[in-house]
Design brief:
The chain is mostly helical. It has eight helices and no strands.
């Protein structure tokens, strides 16, 4: 009886060692079966040239440009947007973003060129078309091309009514066209004032010349 009591603990102890050894071997095999970890340099958004299952090179370049522009790195933004345009030359978004970068540098003529290209390629994208029409009308105001600015705001207003699902600001063209008319009126009034001033100066010079030729003043 006493031998049984001594043998039982020895048996359980041996069984425990066996289980521990088996578990250790299993853990080692599982560890060997695990795939290697992905290097940190390969992590990031999934990429897909078609932009369906991941980010496309075009949109990756656009985002890179947006980040650079937000950091006030205009030249870096332009480089990224140019890369996007080279990849998809008929995608209006690249031209639109490039125009924004040029405007930031005060290059109005260059900005207009890119926005005209964006308008040409925008297709059925009503939301982007609204943005392009807006910036073009605003640009004409900056250039003081007032008749073209009015035409631009008319185009934006017409698109806003024709595309109710697009995010637009219907009240803006009404206000801006009124401002343009006020500017035109001021220009007309100022022009009339300049003409009157010129006439008075000419009259004063004529009287001065006549007075100098008068025998009484010789």
């Amino acid at each position: 009886m006493r031998l049984r009591r001594i043998a039982a603990p020895i048996f359980l102890f041996a069984l425990g060692l066996s289980v521990t050894a088996t578990a250790g071997k299993k853990g080692q095999k599982d560890k060997e079966a695990e795939p290697p970890a992905t290097p940190a340099s390969e992590t990031g958004p999934k990429k897909d040239p078609k932009g369906i299952k991941g980010i496309s090179p075009f949109w990756e370049a656009i985002k890179k440009g947006d980040d650079a522009l937000a950091a006030r790195d205009v030249e870096g933004a332009k480089t990224a947007y140019q890369e996007a345009i080279r990849g998809e030359p008929q995608n209006a978004m690249g031209h639109y973003r490039m125009g924004e970068a040029e405007l930031t540098k005060g290059n109005l003529k260059e900005a207009e060129g890119f926005w005209q290209s964006a308008l040409r390629f925008v297709g059925e994208n009503a939301g982007l078309k609204a943005k392009v029409l807006f910036v073009l009308a605003d640009l004409k105001e900056r250039q003081r091309s007032l008749d073209e600015a009015t035409n631009g705001w008319n185009a934006y207003e017409g698109h806003s009514k024709a595309s109710p699902t697009a995010k637009t600001y219907p009240a803006t063209p009404v206000d801006r066209k009124k401002r343009v008319e006020d500017w035109k009126k001021l220009e007309v009034d100022y022009g009339a004032v300049k003409i009157r001033i010129k006439q008075r100066l000419e009259e004063a010079e004529k009287k001065s010349a006549e007075s100098a030729q008068s025998p009484q003043n010789r």
